[in-house]
């Protein structure tokens, strides 16, 4: 029987990861369709004609795109696990911090890895400030979502798993236990959650992937797929 | 900020982002205190309410701050849920509404700014991009009364403040919104029939004066 839920994505993408973890938390039966981002499928271009990006969630032939929008959809459309808080103010805060991760934390960290000289120093400064602010949001909780993972934790998946890999390949140490003990502890706890573990690629494979693309990424400052 | 009861909005008169919040509050009939911020000299209250971004708009509800205009509008819709519902109820339609509001956020202001900041070929490229954006939005609107269908909704609130910037975009880049996207132009007029919109949007000529002021400030001839 064809699954009514399909996820177009890649295991290497932290954005696809958000959607995948959301579906696993809700115990939704879905079909994962791996996209080759160097040769995007007709299906991807049909379901996301405007941005042409993954992840794309297809539910009963209707497509939902943009990773955080997909996660909110999964939270609302399927019963079970509550990914977002029920209180409107707490929900607004979750959305604000997810946006902060996308607009400040990730860009600063990414550029810290793929620049050098004075430019890199500038980005490292920004990344450190953003990580400090993000870490402060844990406020003694196990996860950003409280006792269990939620919207902000999923948004921060890249921090938990990909940041360590990127900085290793780039040869810098930005997110480390000495400077960010709480955030590093959170990262370990996040990656230990069953739904997350099932979504993550083998670390060695991802390190090898980024290492092989290092020069190209350095030149373009953009992810490289081919 | 003590836990004062009530609603306050920290804002800047011409900001289309602030206007989104004002329109949502007006649609819901919420009484609030408006505080105009001097963006070159931000108040203690703003810096305390939004220490991370130090930007307007900030909604302060019973002492608790919410920032980012679209997040503020969703919050207003969820808290004052008894009237003028802005978000659709079905998950798929909600996802669509968020998608188009996000699209407007990512594209309109940035492209619009390039229309008055740039000259020559770069400006022409921005103009083509703006026309594409308007036509995409027009296709999404179709023959509906509003983006929300029969009722004024989330995407309408997200986009309508930019309609008072159309005159500035048209004047700087020499094109006509009505010419390239007539349904959008008609939709803009329909929205102005709503009190919440008419009372909130800045006069397009005043917006143009503001753009000219910015042009001087940024040294754009």
UniProtKB/TrEMBL annotation, chain A:
Query: Mind listing the GO biological process terms from this record?
Result: glutathione metabolic process
Q: Identify the residues that the record assigns to the GST N-terminal domain, covering every copy.
A: 3-82
Q: Which molecular function GO terms apply here?
A: glutathione transferase activity
Enzyme class label: transferase
Q: What is this protein called?
A: glutathione transferase
The keyword Transferase is annotated on this UniProt entry: yes
Instruction: State which Enzyme Commission number(s) the record gives.
Output: 2.5.1.18
Family per record: Belongs to the GST superfamily.
Q: Does the keyword Transferase apply?
A: yes
A Pfam family that this protein carries is GST_N
Q: Domain GST C-terminal: where?
A: 87-210
Automatic annotation (TrEMBL), chain B:
Q: What keywords sit in the KW lines?
A: Transferase
One Gene Ontology term, aspect cellular component = cytoplasm
Biological process (GO), any one: glutathione metabolic process
Q: Which Pfam families does the record cross-reference, listed alphabetically?
A: GST_C, GST_N
Q: Is Mitochondrion given among the entry's keywords?
A: no
Top-rank taxon, per record: Eukaryota
- Tell me where in this chain the GST C-terminal domain is found: 90-218
Q: Which GO terms describe its molecular function?
A: glutathione transferase activity
The enzyme class is transferase
For this protein, the parts annotated as crossing the membrane are none
| All residue ranges annotated as the GST N-terminal domain in the record | 5-84
Q: Which CDD domains match?
A: GST_C_Tau, GST_N_Tau
- Transferase as UniProt keyword: yes
Q: What EC number is given for this enzyme?
A: 2.5.1.18
Q: Which family does it belong to?
A: Belongs to the GST superfamily.
- What function does the entry list? Conjugation of reduced glutathione to a wide number of exogenous and endogenous hydrophobic electrophiles.
Q: What is the protein name for this chain?
A: Probable glutathione S-transferase GSTU1
Kindly list the organism's lineage. Eukaryota, Viridiplantae, Streptophyta, Embryophyta, Tracheophyta
